[in-house]
Request: fold
Amino acid sequence: MVCDSEVVSVVTEILGSLPIGDFVIKLNHRRLLDAILDISGVPADKFRSICSAVDKLDKEDWEVVKREMIDKGISGGVADKIGKFVLRKGAPWEMYRALIDEKAFGDHAGAAEAMEVSKTIFTFINKYTPLHYFILYPLIHSFARFHRTFASCSPTSRA
Reply:
């Protein structure tokens, strides 16, 4: 995980030196996504197809993604449960604390493990780079893959 954190920090340093303006790096954890799909009631054989729909949230609005998930065979109710997680975003520690405080994952072992890994990653990243460049998306955006943690970056205003 130290290597993952160093890679993310180098990317942040490079982006910060370019004349691209403000940017944000979006972090997620695919195992956390798997846990959320499981908690929401997605059958295991549909995880990957539903993941591909969720990954489109970077380009499509929720209603389009929800319709695709329903077209891929899950109910609207299951899609809504997924939406309660995937539509959230925020600063890493803010999201981590909120999800833990709310007991959003119940006693799901996979989610607990993923959250512990996320906590470790945030701690390591914070040693190298200020976390204000980062937003935690519990389950979406997997453009650049870093071992257990997934990240993507795009120009943005930090609003």
User: Anything to note?
Assistant: Confidence is low (pLDDT under 50) at residues 138-159.
